[in-house]
Fold this sequence. Notes:
The protein is mostly helical. It has helices spanning 3-22, 54-61. It starts with a helix and ends in a 5-residue tail after the last helix.
Amino acid sequence: MNKPQTLVLGLCALGLITLVSACSPTVKIEPPDKPIVINLNVKIEHEIKIKIDKELDTLINNESLF
């Protein structure tokens, strides 16, 4: 190869490298303008069952205690 061909080939390679590097993808992370709002509609129900002995139940229900 002669010098003009080498120079043209080098300039083409340099231009191709510049073009490819200019097209690299970028990722931007930005906070949102408005705050994040989470609405939770929760209904909590619970049931407690107590098993009482019959004698204790009659003692509790006896009017003489109160």
